[in-house]
Amino acid sequence: MNGNGVPILDRYDPEAPSAIEFRRLYSRLKYKMGEKPVFPLMMTSSKHEEGKTTTAAFLGLTIARSDEGRVLLVDMDLHRPRLHRLYGLPMQGGVSEFLQGAEPLDRLPKSTALPNLDILTSGRMVRSPSALFDPPLLRGFLEELSRRYPIVILDSPPLLPVSDTMVLSTLVASVLLVVMAGKTPREVVARGTEILRDVNAPLAGVVINNSRGVLPYYYNYKYYGYRRKE
Ligand SMILES: Nc1ncnc2c1ncn2[C@@H]1O[C@H](COP(=O)(O)OP(=O)(O)OP(=O)(O)O)[C@@H](O)[C@H]1O
Ligand SMILES: [Mg+2]
Questions:
Q1: Is the pTM of this model over 0.90?
Q2: Beta strand spans in the chain (E)
Q3: Which residues of the chain fall short of a pLDDT of 50?
Q4: Would you call 206 helix, strand, or coil by DSSP?
Q5: Cβ atoms within 10 Å, residue 144
Q6: pLDDT per residue over 9-63, tens digit each?
Q7: Which atom of ligand 1 is nearest to the CA of 54?
Q8: Where are the domains of the chain?
Q9: Which of 51, 108, 199, 225 is most solvent-facing, going by the fewest CB within 10 Å?
Q10: According to the model, what pLDDT value does residue 229 have?
Q11: Which fold would CATH assign to domain 38-174+182-199?
Q12: Within 6 Å (CB) of ligand 1, which residues are found?
């Protein structure tokens, strides 16, 4: 799934096992949430490099292809923004410009080759991104995005090192926690879920990222697994 810098829209294969896993993830997410709203959905993890951005990017693409409405992928990781790279887009002109009051929201989403999929990139790097994570400002931002797009998916920083994510988790409709199988220690995952639980965040489930192939074949070797929250 790495693709060596080729934008994901150019290398996406709808018949690939990973694409099937993402469709399954979306179905199970809807099933799990039942009557409750799913979006805005936030993708996070306990620590760095568990596959949050990759998972958010592919989930957004999968839903956009399913023709259920307009999808907006938002890069809320203003510390290590990466979503723009996966879609081959410039980083500037996005979340940070809006949160600083420099640009109105309607001009910022960038279109992609898929008519149903737009991307709101992180915007220019700012010195202290956490200072922009003001709950009333973020609430208004998410409401405005949700009015324009029925499906809003936020990529976010990891929970343990960055406080922005905890703030954001209280303002979304659902949260998916990505865990890199075989890499993230159990206690670190537990601490991440504890942070979410402490603020009553709507944790919808855990995505097991098996990219290192450490789980047995019935976990869909090398692809994604999904486990419902107990
Ligand atoms: N399922 C996967 N298959 C192949 N490569 C993957 C997979 N998941 C993640 N990777 C690779 O692992 C690295 C980290 O992934 P990604 O950037 O999605 O993680 P992240 O949790 O968003 O990291 P960060 O905390 O830095 O934002 C990237 O090089 C990505 O290409
Ligand atoms: Mg990331």
A1: yes
A2: 41-45, 71-75, 110-111, 117-120, 151-155, 174-180, 203-209, 224-228
A3: 1-2, 220-223, 225-230
A4: strand
A5: 14
A6: 988 898 888 888 899 999 999 998 999 999 999 999 999 999 999 999 999 999 9
A7: 18
A8: 38-174+182-199
A9: 199
A10: 44
A11: Rossmann fold (3.40.50)
A12: 1-2, 45, 48-54, 77, 80, 82, 158, 209, 211
